[in-house]
Design goal:
Elements (H helix, E strand, L loop, with lengths): L2 H31 L3 H4 L13 H9 L2 H33 L6 H12 L2 H15 L5 H26 L2 H9 L4 H12 L1 H16 L3 H6 L7 H8 L8 H21 L1 H14 L1
Helix pairs in contact: 1-13, 3-13, 4-7, 4-10, 5-7, 7-10, 8-9, 10-14, 12-13
């Protein structure tokens, strides 16, 4: 075997190992959600079992609040993603197209915010939200999600805005568009793949957020990750079948979103490879 083929074989082996390492927990969770509870941790493990939907039925019996929590997660994720992307597009436009020395200050501030652990911000915000009477509502979750997502989304979008020739906007302005109108009509459509990819990142991060809903909610606005964590800390024992089923349901929306936006993701990665 030539040195080239050996190198390719080693790379393929490492790639396959990484894929198996990443997929195994998900495959185990999905498979366990259809197994009888007594067989999930059986030793030796039972790889083949008659599938059952009992674990999914048990959710409504043991954790009926989970379905409402999923709706809360969908609401918070949708609103946070839309507002974050809208704000990031506007901020990226300013940072890319407006040349002012003082803009270095907000740009540095946005980077600085990303350096702080969320718990440092949550502690002083808790009494503020309590005084405003918005604890256990989606509002603090949306505000917190935007605060920690908009900076990274803005900086990422700015790199893509920089790659769009400003001459295209200038041509539109000659035809009568305003500066902002030219950006919306010309540049924003060009940024669709990048915007979709960044929206996906923001949505997944918000969907999986645990700390904000743990601190700022108690019942009505609680999201699914907190409910799953509480189910794992049951004093009467953990119903692993129901937990696996809840985790599988919680995984479904991100997988669906990735499937819908995979073309945009490929376009963004391809553009980055070409630029590199």
């Amino acid at each position: 075997m030539s040195a080239y083929l050996r190198q390719r074989a080693v790379l393929f082996f490492l790639l396959a190992l990484a894929v198996i390492w990443a997929i195994f927990p998900i495959a185990f969770m999905l498979g366990s959600s259809f197994k009888p509870s007594g067989m999930i941790w059986a030793y030796p493990p039972a790889f083949v079992a008659s599938p059952t939907l009992d674990n999914y039925r048990q959710i409504s019996v043991l954790h009926p609040e989970f379905w409402g929590n999923i709706l809360n997660s969908l609401l918070v994720t949708s609103v946070t993603t839309v507002l974050t992307v809208a704000m990031a597009l506007g901020s990226a436009f300013v940072f890319s197209r407006v040349r002012r020395r003082w803009l270095h200050v907000p740009a540095f501030t946005m980077i600085l915010v990303r350096m702080f652990p969320p718990i440092i911000i949550i502690i002083p915000l808790f009494p503020v939200f309590n005084d405003l009477g918005i604890l256990d509502t989606p509002i603090p979750l949306v505000l917190g999600g935007i605060a920690f997502s908009v900076s990274a989304a803005t900086l990422l979008l700015k790199t893509f805005v920089d790659d769009v020739p400003i001459a295209l906007e200038e041509a539109a302005m000659i035809d009568g568009c305003s500066h902002l109108g030219a950006f919306i009509r010309i540049t924003v459509p060009v940024l669709k793949p990048a915007t979709a990819a960044i929206a996906l990142v923001v949505a997944i991060a918000t969907w999986n957020e645990y700390l904000f809903p743990l601190v700022f909610t108690s019942a009505d606005a609680r999201t699914a990750p907190v409910t799953i964590a509480i189910a794992l800390d049951n004093e009467d024992g953990v119903s692993w079948g129901a937990v696996m089923a809840m985790a599988a349901i919680h995984l479904l929306p991100p997988l669906t979103l990735v499937a819908l936006l995979h073309k945009q993701l490929v376009n963004v990665m391809s553009a980055g490879a070409v630029k590199g």
